[in-house]
Amino acid sequence: MNSIRGKWALITGATSGFGKATADLFAKEGCNVIITGRRAEKLEALTNILKEKYNVIVLSYCFDVRELNKCVEMANDLAEREIVPDVLVNNAGLASGKNKIHEGLIGDWEKMIDTNVKGLLYITRSILPMMVTRNEGHVINIGSTAGHIVYPEGGVYNASKFAVKALNEAINLDLVGTNIRCCSVDPGAAETEFSKVRFHGDEEKAKKVYEGYEPLQPEDIANIIYFIVTSPVHVNITNLVVYPTAQRSFYVWDKK
Ligand code: NDP
Ligand code: 8X3
After folding, report:
1. Residues 60-75: pLDDT tens digits?
2. For residue 163, what is the domain's CATH number?
3. What is the pTM of this model?
4. Cβ of residue 39 lying under 6 Å from some atom of ligand 1
5. CB under 8 Å to 83, separation ≥6 — which residues?
6. Is residue 227 included in any domain, yes or no?
7. Nearest ligand to the CA atom of 45
8. Averaged pLDDT score across all residues of the chain
9. Residue 252 lies in a domain
C-alpha cells in the first residue's frame, strides 16, 4: 500500500461527478487536494466542505481547461508554492450533443475536442514536467468505454475518448525510465451530470439514460482511482475498464 496521506492530488473537473467524489475520497484519506472547474461557487463550496470535514489543505483554481494560459498559470502558481502534485487526475471532460455526424453541431464538436483532448494535453504539458524533474508521480486519465467502441450519434465524443486512450498509451511509453505511472480509467454508464450536459440541460432526457438498471456511481470511480494510486510503486496499472454489471458493452444491456 502506497499511502497518499500528506501528499498532493490535482483533480481537474472537481465541481461534480467523478472529480468531486475523488477529491472527497482523497481528502478523507488525508491527501491535500488541488481542485479545478469553471463553476466558482461549486469550487468554493467543495473547498470549504473538504477543509472542514478532513482538515487537509485545499487549493482551488477556477478556469476553463481549454485555455492554455490558465493551465500554465496554475502550474506556475503551484511551482511558486513549491508544490509538485503527486497525483494528477485528468478528469475534466464532457459530451455535448448526440447527433449523426451529418447533423452534428460544430460548436458541440469543438467543445468536446478542445476539452477532452486539448484540455487534457494542456494540463498534462503544464504539470508532467514537474513530476519528471522529481522522478515521481502518477497520472490518471479519465477515458471512457466510448473510447473502445463507437456507437451511433456518439462519433465525435467517441473520437475524443479514443484520443484519450491513445494519449494515455503514448504518455506511458514516453515515461519509460522514470518512476511515474500512468493509467486510464475507462467507465461505462455512470450517473453524474454527464447526460444533463450532453443533452444541453434537458433533465428528463438525462434521467432516462439511468433508468431500468443500476448505473455506476461517482464513488465507484473514486474508489477505483484510489486503488490504482495506492497500489505499490512498482505496479503500473495502465488501463482499467469498468462497466455497471447490467451493461456489458454499449450494445449489451440488462435493462428492466
Ligand atoms: P460531470 O458533468 O458530473 O463532471 C464533469 C466535470 O468536468 C465538472 O466538474 C466540470 O466542471 C468539468 N469540466 C467540463 N468542462 C470543463 C472545462 N472546459 N474546463 C474545466 N472543467 C470542465 O461528468 P462526469 O463526472 O461523468 O465526467 C467526468 C469525466 O468522466 C469526463 O471526462 C467524462 O467524459 C468521463 N466519463 C463519464 C462517464 C459517465 O457515464 N458519466 C463514463 C465515462 C467517462 P465545470 O462545469 O464547473 O467546469
Ligand atoms: C460516457 C459513457 O457510453 O455514454 O463516457 O459514452 S457513454
Report:
1. 999 999 999 999 999 9
2. 3.40.50.720
3. 0.99
4. yes
5. 8, 34, 59
6. yes
7. 1
8. 98
9. no
Instruction: Give the torsion sign (CA, 142, 165, 74, 138).
Output: positive
Sign of CA dihedral 222, 224, 229, 230: positive
User: CA 162 to CA 143: how far, in whole Å?
Assistant: 8
Mean pLDDT of 10-15: 99
Counted domains in the chain: 1
Q: Is the pLDDT of residue 1 over 70?
A: no
pLDDT, residue 120, reads 99
Give residue 146 CA to ligand 2 midpoint distance, Å. 5
Residue 1 lies in a domain: no
Give dist(CA 227, CA 215) in Å, integer. 20
CB atoms within 10 A of CB 241: 14
Residue 2 lies in a domain: no
Ligand 1 centroid–CA 118 distance in Å is 14
CA of 187 to the centre of ligand 2 (A): 7
Joined together, the cell numbers standing for residue 225 give 482511482
Q: Give per-residue pLDDT as tens, 152-209.
A: 999 999 999 999 999 999 999 999 999 999 999 999 999 999 999 999 999 999 999 9
pLDDT at 237: 98
Catalytic hit among 54, 61, 151, 157 = 157
Q: For residue 62, what are the domain limits?
A: 8-242
Question: Which atom of ligand 2 is least distant from the CA of 157?
Answer: 6
- Tell me if 91 sits within 8 A of 116, measured CB to CB: no
Is 157 catalytic? The answer is: yes
